[in-house]
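Limitations
The structure tokens in this dataset are predictions for the assembled complex, not deposited experimental models. Users should treat interface geometry with appropriate caution, especially where small molecules or nucleic acid strands are included. An illustrative entry is reproduced here so readers can see what is and is not provided.
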Amino acid sequence: MKLTILGCFSASPSKNSFPSAQILEIGGNNFLIDCGEGTQIQLRRCGIKLNSIEHIFISHLHGDHFFGLPGLISTFRLLGRSKPLNIYGPKGIKQAITLMLKLGDSWTNYELRFNELEDLKSIKLLENNKFSVYTIPLNHRIYTNGFLFKEKKNEKKLLVDIALKLKIDKTQFNGIKMGKDGVLSNGDIIKNSKLTEPKPNDIIYAYCSDTCYYPKIIDLINECDILYHESTFLDKHIELANRTKHSTAKQAAEIARLANVKKLILGHFSSRYNNLNDFQSQAQEVFNNVELASDGKVFYF
Amino acid sequence: MKLTILGCFSASPSKNSFPSAQILEIGGNNFLIDCGEGTQIQLRRCGIKLNSIEHIFISHLHGDHFFGLPGLISTFRLLGRSKPLNIYGPKGIKQAITLMLKLGDSWTNYELRFNELEDLKSIKLLENNKFSVYTIPLNHRIYTNGFLFKEKKNEKKLLVDIALKLKIDKTQFNGIKMGKDGVLSNGDIIKNSKLTEPKPNDIIYAYCSDTCYYPKIIDLINECDILYHESTFLDKHIELANRTKHSTAKQAAEIARLANVKKLILGHFSSRYNNLNDFQSQAQEVFNNVELASDGKVFYF
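Predicted assembly:
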């Protein structure tokens, strides 16, 4: 997977910081997660082809997570898009987008497929043989979902040196990766287990923004590879975090620790802080493997 | 007047160009004219205090002229605004903004005063002793208004040297500027016309975007100081201009010539052109005093 942070600040876009939006790439598919104002500017700055986006996931209907969507949809139209666009987001998103387009008499020349969400339990949004996507119900001031992305690892790793030494024909390699035994030119069978390493685990990315400290999500995100968790505030503003149903850096780290995730990425920083280093140090009091998001930063995992 | 171009490109924001938005300052009042996506970013880059904006004028409901408005309104709320905000725009704008805020349960803590426009003739939107604002009905694919701003010059220019020579008391100066005669210490009257130059003309700025070539506006904008006129296309795309109800640079210049304006500013450039110099040269075949808008550029007049 490749994660590109387009914007990782709370509230409003400013001169040098953008609100929530990110691109997750899984096997050539670019998923857009949230779409704050200016997302299309950031997509261009980060060199992401707009036409590569087929699925957009909106966590909730606060402006800093979806006010960039009407503009992006309009731009797709201007670029001559013909393939459908799938939008997953809270109930109401269809009415909002439809009204904004209708007022400008600007219907799209491609299909908009809205998938409006109301469920309070995790549901599967999308699945094929390469990946699956699920909601992570969060606890914020309005109805909000995070999203869990699984990249399926269907292929075993071929032990190429052994296969070549045994003179197994290369045409068999794909079949062996999928679990077949090898066949020598004399007809002898080589067991698959001697030619491959076990199938690696699926790679799992969990996006959790916006939410207060909410341990109910732990079962869903348990042992995921990467957890992106909002941390709007530092410790000294914990009262404000409670009141606005946001999290502190330390609370995000506590979720990461309890869920035993491999790595935590912090984001959704309040613009009141000039120095973000304290987010990392406060989180690391609880959980060690912490990185801070920043606009334009790319993570590979 | 001081005009700051925040964005002057058509269609969608890109890495380095923003859609329509500009700030016109008249005597300390900042008027925001159109509000494409990213306007709040540009306001900050141009050092304009957000709280100084009390009136927003939206020409029409295509995204590149108003998709920045919901975000700006939300940011005003986050900044703790308490004074009312006046929004002038086509019918439907209230429903759109209200819905976007309602979905996020994000009511403003200040008053939003919507002035929805439906008139097909020019109407007065605003007037006080310093300025007045009128609509300029345009001809585009959907209902569209330009806006005419008049800065009133209420004071005559005092001939200070003469007044001082005559030993007229300085406490009379403001009255003389407003038209009163001067009084000497011996009671003699000095006629106002001997102490002042005639009142200068009002300064007039006309904003015309988006529109096809539409000579009906000429009476309204006649002899204005500055005309900002859209010029989405160059000559070679005149068919496209006709079909989409936009103007070419030469058509904008023809309007400027017929209306005998002092200066023409071209803007709303299609992003298909890498070099904008042709806009100026094609316009200057018809009308000489032409400047090109660019994002961040400031004009004083």
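Some entries come with short summary sentences. For this one: Chain A touches chain B at residues 11-15, 37-38, 40-41, 44-45, 60-64, 67-68, 70-71, 74-75, 78, 90, 92-93, 95-96, 99-100, 103-106, 141-142 (CB under 8 Å).
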